[in-house]
Amino acid sequence: MTRLFTEFYQNIFYPILPNVLRLIRQFTFLCLLLCLVFALQSQAIAADFTDNLLKQPPREITISLGNSANELKFEPDHLEFVPGKRYLLHLNNPSQLKHYFTAKDFADSIWTQKVEAGKVEVKGAIHELELKPGAEAQWFFVPIKPGKYSLNCSIAGHTAAGMTGEIAIQ
Ligand SMILES: [Cu+2]
């Protein structure tokens, strides 16, 4: 039995060992090369995707926080978005009261390009916006994660009074 093994190693395994090792090396090299090509390509695709997305004219939607009669509600109180499209959400507060647009889970499910308010442009993630009476803001974003998210105004008493809404990404 031991002899059989020895013969196997000496006559079969050892002679082809260099070839096997060379094959493994070549295969590894090929894999690394493919990985590199794939990584570069997906990076290019991602850059292209972002570029095209930012050139896409945004779909515009308006939401009012409260109204001129000072009712505690969002108008409309239901918003719908499609993932992967660029949006411009116009927010305004036509009331005499301060209001919040609070939708943290929604904010986590979108990619915010920027929020413009007055002469200020804020880039990066936004979780909550406060609008003083008469204020306006423009929120540019791309919905990412489908789901149903709740919206409310976090000023004391406003949520309880019905200042809530629903946002769907689907
Ligand atoms: Cu409010």
Number of helices, counting only DSSP H or I runs of 4 residues or more: 2
Distance between the termini: 68 Å
- Would you tell me the overall average pLDDT? 90
Radius of gyration: 29 Å
Largest sheet: 6 strands, mixed
Overall number of strands: 11
Protein name: Copper-binding protein
Keywords: Copper, Metal-binding
Organism: Anabaenopsis arnoldii
Domain Blue (type 1) copper: 63-169
SSE layout and pairings?
Layout (H helix, E strand, L loop, with lengths): L1 H54 L3 E7 L8 E2 L2 E4 L5 E6 L6 E4 L1 H5 L1 E8 L2 E3 L5 E4 L4 E8 L3 E6 L11 E6 L1
Parallel strand pairs: 1-4, 3-11
Antiparallel strand pairs: 1-2, 4-9, 5-8, 6-7, 6-9, 10-11
Bound molecules: copper (II) ion.
Organism: Anabaenopsis arnoldii
Pfam families: Copper-bind
Keywords: Copper, Metal-binding
